[in-house]
Each structure stands twice: as C-alpha cells, then as structure tokens.
Amino acid sequence: MKNYLNESLSAQERAEALVNEMTVEEAASQLRYDAPAVERLGIPAYNWWNEGIHGLARSGVATMFPQAIGLAAMFDTDLVFKVADITSTEARAKYNEYSKRDDRDIYKGLTLWAPNINIFRDPRWGRGHETYGEDPYLTAKCGKAYVKGLQGSGKVLKTAACAKHFAVHSGPEAVRHEFNAEVNWKDLEETYLYAFEELVKKAKVEGVMGAYNRVNGEPSCASEFLMGKLDKWDFDGYFVSDCWAIRDFHEHHMVTSSPVESAAMALKAGCNVNCGCTYVHLLSALDKELVTEDEIRASCVALMRTRIRLGMFDKSTEYDNIPYSVVSCPEHKAVSYQCAVKSMVLLKNKGILPLDKKSISTIAVIGPNADSRAALEGNYNGTADRYVTFLEGIEDAFEGRVLYAEGCHLYKDRVSGLAQAGDRYAEAEAAAANSDVVILCVGLDATIEGEEGDTGNEFSSGDKNDLRLPESQRELIKRVAKIGKPMILVCAAGSSINIEHDCDALIHAWYPGSEGGKAIADIIFGKVSPSGKLPVTFYNSADKLPCFTDYAMSDRTYRYTRDNILYPFGYGLTYGDVVVTSLSYDDGKVNVEVENNGADTCDVIELYIKSHCDNTPAYPVLCGFKRIFAKKGEKLDVEIEVPDKAFTTVSDIGERKQFAKEFTLYVGTHQPDELSCQLSGTNCMSIEIER
Q1: Do 266 and 210 contact (CB within 8 A), yes or no?
Q2: Fewer CB in 10 Å around end: N or C, the chain?
C-alpha cells in the first residue's frame, strides 16, 4: 500500500508521501484551481472553486437561504450553524453524484469559498451583503458558526470552509484590482483582522482566500505582513488567491513586470493555489530560478493535505451515502423559512402591523420587487426549486382580493422599451386607489448591488453612488403615497437604504431566500413577530460619510460615530415588548432578567461594553448576544458569557491587551445610544465592574 493511501497516517504525512511520488511538473499542475488528473497515481481532476455563502451556489438546485447579511441580522449563531450544516450536506450529496459520473467541473467540489468575513465598513460597497455586517465581534461569531457547520466534526472534513477576502477589503469595486488600502495598526488589529484571527484560531478554518487589493503597499495575495499573521496564528490549511488577483501584480499593482515574476512572487509568499491562470508560468519561473522545486512541492503538499482531510483518498467516508434526495428537501426549506422570518427587520410601525385580515377586503401589492425572484436571491446563490415572491406569499396568505402592479422598473425610467418614461405609474396608482392597504415592495437586487463585473450597474461597478432608492422607485413611492391609502413598505436590499418618505410601516427584508414571500406575509399578518436586528448602521446620507477609499474607522460604524444615523446598528422592532428588569455580573457572565409585556415574540438581548481607557472605541461595542423567545407576560432569566477578549483594547501600535480596569456593561434589546432608545421606546440597563 502506498503511504498516501494509509489512513492510519496523518494528513501531513500522507500528503508528503503523495507529492514525493509526483514529478515537479505534476506537482506544479496541481496548484491551479482547475487541477488536472494525475492518472498514474490515481489522482482525479479537481476543481477547487465552489461557492456557498448562503446555501450551495451555482451548481443547480439547492436550498436557498437569506443572503449572508440577512443571516447576520438574525443574531442567532445556532441557526447560522444549521444553515452551514445543510449547505455542506447538500454539497456532499451533489459531490457524491457528480463523482460517480466523473463530473469534476467548477462548482462541484468540496472546497467552498465561504464565508465572506470582510467588514462592511461603508454602505456604498456593492458586495457588503455577502458579509455579516460592520461589527468585528458579530462577524467572527457568525463566521465561526458557519465554518464549523461547513466542516463538521467527523473523521474527515464534511466540506472545507474558506475565510475571505484576506484582508482589508471592502471596495470600491471599480478600483479593486489596483487599489492600495492604507490602514493604521489599530484599525488593522481591532477591525479588519479580528474575524480572520478568530476563524483560524478558534474554528480551524481550512482555507483562506487573499484579496485583490494591496494592503499598505503589499498585494494581499503575496503580503509578507498578512502571511506572517497566518503563521503567527498557526494556520495549517491552504491559501488561495482571489480569482485572477495574481495577474493584477503586473497588470495593475505594477509590483512585478511579467506573469512569470507574479507567479513566483505569489508562490514564495505562500499562495498555494491560483484561482486564475498565472501559475501556468511556474515552470518558467523554476527554469529562471525565481522559485525552487521545494517551494512548488510545499504548496502542493498543502493542497493534497486538504484533499486528504476531505477523505478524497480514503476507501470510504461517513458522508459517502448522503442521498441526493436531501437536496432542497422540505426539512431544509423549513430552515430557510425560519431564517427569513428571523432576519427581517421591522424599522417602523405606526400601529398598522400586524395587519388585521378581517378589516380589509383588498390589498394592492406594488413595486418592482413585488414579484421578483432576483429580490430573493442576493448573489453567489443557488437555484431554488420553488420561489415564493412577496406577491405570491401575500396571495397565498390573504383570502381577499390582491391587486398587483409592477409600478416601475428597478432603476430605468420605463418598463417597456417602446413606451414613454413612467409607463407603469398609472397602473400602480389605480391599484392603490382601489385597495384598502398598499404593500409597496421596493429596493435593489444583485443586478445593481454586487460585485464588479457581475452586475448591470454601469454607474459604479456594483457599488452604490448614494443611499437612496433609484429615481424610478422614489417617484413611484411619491405617486402611490398621494393616493392616501395606508402604506407598508417592504425593502429588499443588502445594505443601508434611506427611503426618504414617510410610511405606516417599514420592513427591511434583505435578500431573504426562496421562502421570503411566505416569511413577509406571515410577519405582515401577524402569524409571527419580526425579530431581526440591523447588523449595519443605516445612515441618512452618503454625502456625510468619509471618502469611500478611506479605510480609517474614525467616523464609521456604530463604534465610532453618532452622526448621520437613520437607524442604528442592533436596532429592530417586534410585536412584543421585551424589557430588561435586572442585571448582574459575576465571573465572566452577565445574568439578565427580561419580561415581555407585549405579544409572543422572539427578540435579541444585546450586550455592549465600554472600557474606560484611552485606547477604546468612542462608543460601547457589542460583546455578547442571545436570541430568546418570550410569550406574552413571560419572565426569563438569560445568561450571556462575556469573552475575555471583550476586556481588551488595541493601542495605536496594534497591541491588544487589557489596558483598563474599569468597565461599563450595557444590556438591552438594542444599543445603549439615545436614538435606539428613542426609536424602540425602551432603555438599556447598565452596571459598572472592575476586572
């Protein structure tokens, strides 16, 4: 028996034995994302590129969950874990079937390039909805749960997760291939590297993907500083470039003069696999003595180690018999529905919600996102076997008449190409006039909010220019509002939006997945209470934000600003009335008593800490949370652990330690800021502690 087939040996030993059997040419060929077969050694072809940030993506039918930003809005790491576990189950089921048929194409492997744990520092960034929001702690908690769900706890990895994009990467999309993100040591450690360190150290994430941009002058995929961090954290997985990022070294960053030099630079820095084609030049780099054979083989060992950890060279694994029937099964879609319900954030309610079905006979459902599948999907998505749009969900749940009007195009001035501008406004007005209540479904989708090159947003390469709705929708809202009927706004978008118009209720639905329509209907009609919380700050205006290319955290996010805030981070209403009635702290744990004076509801108990020292962020920061369910009149005892890291701060030179001895802990269903208290009608409790 060849040693690489000996399952009693470690993955490292088996990988080394396997690579020792290869020629240097064979080893070099394995460093591409589309690695060819090495038939004489029984190594099948393998494509490293697969996606799964909110369900298995781009591989046909799969359970489609809310976009990652919506998963963060749940403030529920147990449910995030379940989403990832289902995603990996479906990935294995499909991999089993594809492998039987020798289909080893892109999006069919077990290395999922998820989660995206970049910090959503600026609401204009088009890819922000792929992330878990603006807070490092929340991002790390969700990211760790997702990694553990993807990778499982078996003898072999169920799938291999990948933390991306390492690091300091959050737009602008238009310049990502040549941009240099300049960031100080404090922001690096406190904000941009926090989640990556947690996922490497605590979740043992198998993969890390580099970013396109430079960080303080160094290309992210060949950064001595960033690679040094991975070494310091004892990372022993594989490192992959973002797709065609190594080509940027010579074409845009101008740190090398040729593909051969770029390939050599990336390999020597520790980039194991090239998503792209630059590593076809590795043998030329070897001939020119820019790299060594040992360096090529070392990268190949790292990749084979991951494939061995996935059980690809074992006689059998515990996941081989996962049946294809689990893909998009009813049980999985039920979890997608749970996520959609828990992710939607009720931002405003003047008493109209929940809507009493018995008091109305006709509902007008209006807007470009009313019957849109794209508004459910986000990006990096799979294909649902059934979609429930907002319109369909309301039609299914309401026995009266539902009048539908598209109202306008998502962003163009007309729906029909041969029509005059505003060709659907009259129909929307007519529907509103003939209804008792209007549900207006507006927002964005991934065709105009997303990744450079993947959107139809010719204006900003996927980024937003401002925080308003497109002009076509702003005009639609004005016209419908003039009709004078009660108006509920449902906004599907992955980021901060300022509706700029009054309404009776406002729900931010994110991109809620295939069950989004059923979830919105059940919330509107009171079958369930909304309970999502904002994982990002909603701002009034982009004009008052710092420059998009400025990566300093000052005047950004809830930790560093109280200006220009429309809705604060952590805010979200329910149909209940959960209040904190007592608070104590002992030995690293906060004990809270809460009481629900309203309708049955889920809610999130949020814990914030303020360190009394010079190095602390300007305002209290999230350091714990727990999702609860409370019946009307019920009292609950809630325990929240405060991690040791919460008592540390980061100095201006990037040193993290406990500088303070005195701290204030705040507990409530939102932040302890004045605006959150005003909007929610409830206050937080606080306690002073010494440590």
Answers
A1: no
A2: N
Interior angle at CA 450, CA 448 and CA 455, nearest 5: 50
Alpha helices in 528-672, H assignment, sequence order = 557-560
In the prediction, which pLDDT does 526 show?
98
446 close to 378: Cβ distance less than 8 angstroms: yes
| Cβ contacts of 365 within 8 Å, gap of 6 or more | 390, 391, 394, 395, 402, 403, 404, 405, 439, 441
The per-residue pLDDT for 453 is 80
pLDDT of 684 strictly over 80: yes
Residue 48 CA, chain-centre distance (Å), reads 21
Question: E-assigned strands of 284-410?
Answer: 345-349, 362-366, 401-405
Residues designated as active site? 242, 449
Candidates 397, 658, 365; CA nearest to 489 is: 365
**Tens digits of residue pLDDT in 388-403:** 999 999 999 999 999 9
Query: Are 127 and 462 spatial neighbours (Cβ–Cβ below 8 Å)?
Result: yes
Question: Residue 663: pLDDT above 90?
Answer: yes
Average pLDDT, the chain: 97
Helix axes 194-201, 224-232, angle to 10 degrees: 40
Separation of alpha carbons 543 and 467, rounded Å = 9
> What pLDDT does 454 receive?
79
Going by pLDDT thresholds of 50, 70 and 90, the confidence category of residue 455 is: confident
Confidence of residue 358 (pLDDT cuts 50, 70, 90): very high
Average pLDDT over residues 147-161: 98
Q: What angle do CA 173, 374, 464 make, to 5 degrees?
A: 30
- Per DSSP, the three-state class of 594 is strand
Per-residue confidence at 142, pLDDT binned at 50, 70, 90? very high
The three-state secondary structure class of 321 is coil
Angle at 144 (CA atoms; ends 270, 686), nearest 5 degrees: 130
The residue among 456 and 581 whose pLDDT is bigger is 581
Three-state SS sequence of 634-661 = CEEEEEEECCHHHHCEECCCCCEECCCC
- Strand pairing report for 538-539 and 505-508: unpaired
The alpha carbon of residue 168 and the mean position of all alpha carbons in its chain are separated, in whole angstroms, by 15
Q: Are 419 and 426 in contact (CB under 8 A)?
A: no
Q: What does the pLDDT look like over 100-111, one tens digit per residue?
A: 999 999 999 999
**Contact yes or no for 677/683 (Cβ under 8 A):** yes
Query: Which tens digits make up the pLDDT trace of 412-422?
Result: 999 999 999 99
Tell me, what DSSP letter sits at residue 414? -
Closest CA to 686 of 597, 572, 622, 609: 609
Q: What is the pLDDT of residues 476-514, one digit of tens each?
A: 999 999 999 999 999 999 999 999 999 999 999 999 999
Phi, psi angle pair for 476, to nearest 5°: -60, -45
Placement of tokens 């998963």 in the chain: 71
Crossing angle of helices 516-524/330-343, nearest 10°? 50
Alpha carbons 291 and 268: distance in angstroms, whole number: 7
Q: What is the pLDDT of residue 30?
A: 98
Long-range Cβ pairs for the range 97-103 (8 Å, 24+): 97/324, 99/44, 102/44
In order of start, what are the domains of the chain with their CATH numbers? 3-325 (3.20.20.300), 344-536 (3.40.50.1700), 578-690 (2.60.40.10)
Selection from 447, 546, 530 nearest residue 121 by Cα: 546
Phi and psi (nearest 5°) for 383? -115, 120
